[in-house]
Give the backbone structure.
Amino acid sequence: MFSATWTRTPDSSQTSRNWKSCLVLWWHASDSHSECWVAKAWYQTRNAALSSLERSRASVLLENAYSYSLRNAEAAFCHASLFWTKQDVHSAVQKYQEAVHIDPSFSEAYEALVRCYLVMRRDREALSLARAASQHIRRPVFHYYLQGIALSQKPATTDKCRVLLEKAVKTDPSYQQAVIQLSKLYLREGAGENAVDL
């Protein structure tokens, strides 16, 4: 769509991207596709402290994305994240469910939806969603990780959670989310040496 220029800084041999010109080109990219509006909304929500003005700007950008394509999972996910920052968990759940419905292989939407259910104290729904996600996402590490998150809230299921997260780390040691979650669990249990070993 566009190209950004690479410049060398006079003081070092490292290359740096000319982000200002890149951003200007990106911002004026074709507005006839929903992906452009979603990207603009993500930029708005990620690079600001999310005051009410920035939230309203991001909402307008997302409405533009919806006007071009109602079947955009990323737009629904971004809209849900915006509701999450407003602490409107019920609306966030609806939008995350919409994102999962549009794209059943959208792993970030499953994870966010499980976390919303846990905040709402709907542990059974979180666990059943984590199990259902394995039918659409064929990555065992994500399956173990998501079920581990779903079981992480109750003290009675901590052992099962630890086993699942350990399986996730053993399956793919480079999967950072599982490593971080397992480290947090070890620290919560007082096994700091195990967390350091990870």
User: Anything to note?
Assistant: The two ends are 41 Å apart (CA to CA). Residues 152 and 158 are 6 Å apart (CA to CA). The chain has eleven helices and two strands. Confidence is low (pLDDT under 50) at residues 1-27.
